[in-house]
């Protein structure tokens, strides 16, 4: 499982690259743009081919699932802590049928203890971040946790075996694709790694 996280700031050719990645089989795109408001999120989504909207998970403005045919919603750590104790209330006005719900964690103990059943959990930083300077990797080993956990932080096409040995069932990648000079080729190499695992 490969999750691509949006670059925080827009980069040149971002939408072109993204549409090409979808063409190549990208199934999970996490739209995380903290500096964009609701309307800018709508504008961004309208730039992406509509047939790919069902592969997009939003971090902000969860109500976008009511307007766009999105894949799901994601809770960042603080938002989860603030809202998930009363999930019935939170989801009351969201059209969540068939949608995924995921969340970010930075401590394996908190992830393990979390009572809400997320479809998957992003845990970071596994390795030192490529896109965030000073974000040191912690090499979490999650083999003992019986939940679907996706490793993030410092993920590239070259360290997927290492991440898998630590017990992660997939990767969340940001700098490993967006900072690459060959993002499509690097994504394809990652896909190939996971395809070979299924054989």
Provide structural commentary.
With 199 residues, this protein is an alpha/beta fold. The protein is built from 8 helices and 8 strands, in the order βαβαββααβαββαβαα. It has helices spanning 14-23, 38-47, 77-83, 87-91, 108-113, 160-165, 175-178, 183-198; strands at 2-5, 28-31, 56-58, 72-75, 100-105, 120-123, 149-152, 171-173. The protein has an 8-stranded parallel beta barrel with strand order 1-2-3-4-5-6-7-8. Strand 2, helix 2 and strand 3 (56-58) form a beta-alpha-beta unit. It is globular, with a radius of gyration of 16 Å. It starts with a strand and ends with a helix. The relative contact order is 0.15. The mean pLDDT is 95.
Please outline what is shown here.
With 199 residues, the chain is α/β, with parallel strands linked by helices. Helix content is 32%, strand content 16%.
**Largest sheet entry:** 8 strands, parallel, barrel
Helix content: 25-40%
Distance between the termini: 14 Å
Counting DSSP E segments of at least 2 residues, the number of strands comes to 8
Shape: globular
The number of helical elements comes to 8
| Major sheet strand order | 1-2-3-4-5-6-7-8
**Helix vs. strand class:** alpha/beta
Gyration radius, in Å? 16 Å
- Which percent band covers the strand fraction? 15-25%
pLDDT < 50 runs, ≥5 residues: none
Following the backbone from N to C, one meets helices and strands in this order, namely: EHEHEEHHEHEEHEHH
Mean pLDDT across all amino acids: 95
